Structure formats: C-alpha cells, structure tokens
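User: Earlier you gave me the apo prediction for this protein. Now I'd like the version with magnesium ion bound, so I can compare the two side by side. Same sequence as before, with the ligand SMILES added.
Assistant: Got it. Here's the input I'm using:
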Amino acid sequence: MGEPHPKLETTDLSRTFGRGSAAVDALGPLDLTVAPGEFVCIVGPSGCGKSTLLRIAGGLLRPSTGELAIRTSSPRPAAMIFQDYGIYDWKTVLANVRFGLDIQRVPRREANARARDWLARMGLADFASAYPATLSGGMRQRVAIARALAVEPEILLMDEPFAALDAQLRTILQDELLDLTQTTRTTTLFITHSLEEAIVLGDRVLVMSARPGRIIAERRPPFPRPRSGDVRSAPEFTTLKSELWELLRPEAVPA
Ligand SMILES: Nc1ncnc2c1ncn2[C@@H]1O[C@H](COP(=O)(O)OP(=O)(O)OP(=O)(O)O)[C@@H](O)[C@H]1O
Ligand SMILES: [Mg+2]
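And here is the structure of the complex with magnesium ion:
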C-alpha cells in the first residue's frame, strides 16, 4: 500500500493582491501536503502570506494560480480559527460556540450541551451568557477556539490561535491541544510565530520565506507520539529551536 492521499494538498499555489503596478505578490508558488491525522506547523516572518494561505485552505479566498484539494470523508467542514478571532459581538459566548453546530443543524439541546462542554474545557463555564465585549482578549480567543473545536472538524486550520494569551495560559492550551489532537487524530494546519509552539505541537515544522512566502525548509521534531509538554525541556528541543531560528532569521530581517 502506498501513502494515503493527503487530506489537504496544494499544487503550485500562489496569490497576488491587486493588479498592475499596485500588485502585491503575497504567497507562493507553494506545494504543501497534510496527511490524514498529521499536525503541520508553519512558521514564517510577518507579512509572508501565512494568513493568506490559511484563508485559501479554508475556502475564504481564491488562489491566483494553482490548486487546492481538500479530501474529507464526511460533510463536516474544515474549521478555521482566525488570527483576529472572528467572533460575533452581538451573540452570547454560548451562541458563538454553538454557531458551527447551528449551521450543521445539530438539535438545540445537543448543541447547547456540546458548546457548554467546550466552554468548560476552555475555563469559560461561568461566561456562557456573557457577551464577548465584556471578556478579556485571551478569553475571546478561547471562545474562538471552543467554537472551532465544537464542530469536531476533520481538518483544523489555526492561524496563531494562542497569540493573544499570556505565557502560562498559552502553555496550558498547547498541552490541551496536544492531548486533544493525539486523541482525535485531527488533521491540523497550524500557523504560529513561536518556534517553541511549532516544535511542541508539530509532526512537521515548515519554514516560509519572506513574501511571497514559499516553503524553504522542513524539520520533523524528533519526539514520538503520544508526546507531552515535557519535550520542552529535552536537549533536542533546544537544538531544533536554534536550527529553525537560523533558517528563519535571514527571512525575518526587514527588506
Ligand atoms: N486583502 C488583501 N488585499 C491586499 N493585500 C493583502 C490582503 N491580504 C493580505 N495582503 C498582503 O499580503 C501579504 C501577506 O499577508 P498575510 O496576512 O497573509 O501575512 P502573514 O504571514 O499572515 O503576516 P502576520 O504574521 O503578520 O500575520 C501582506 O503584504 C499583506 O499586506
Ligand atoms: Mg497572519
């Protein structure tokens, strides 16, 4: 038997914004595969096209050239967590988390139960009837995470989901996500600025160049699954982090 078909595959993918002399080449060309159950992390300098890639993967933006293939076995959608949360201020926290389930027409009673379960896991049980405007930035981001996970997506697309969290909470949620994805084997494409985060979470870490972002390197963190947050203190962790930084540094220097 050969390799299983990737769940997500891009071929020669690129995106340009605007036209003529004002055109901005934001991304690619880029070839990327994510295998079933694989957790792929992408790191790259600011403005290199990471969010553009994720929005294309989520079907929110068309590529200028190339192709995107998403191969899911059920009608469950790919779920996306935006860099800037994308939660609705006029809906309660509970209604925000239930949102994807409502779209799937999950019966209200079950949808409420699942949404409350995810709120509890995110430490937000007491805020179900609050409105997002009354929450802190980190709490809002946890609402967005709960909303995406509540639909139990086949593919999870995460764009710096932990960026607004303090260091402690970030570590806790990284460990939670590690547990969760190792249990569910959810195929995940995860964008982050943090090399540590990419190494803890990823089966593979892809390094993108400056804009227009291409993949310039790939590393496999040498930690078997199931793994825990303890890998943070392994010597191989520090070595890989320095190696990734050497790859990234020339790209991160402002042109
Ligand atoms: N809708 C748009 N119209 C025009 N230009 C855009 C649009 N969206 C993104 N760009 C440009 O495309 C480039 C890549 O943007 P993108 O948001 O994908 O970067 P990023 O890697 O996610 O950056 P960051 O790490 O800061 O989030 C940038 O130069 C940005 O200005
Ligand atoms: Mg971005």
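For your comparison, keep in mind: Residues 8-71+154-252 form a domain with the Rossmann fold fold (CATH 3.40.50.300).
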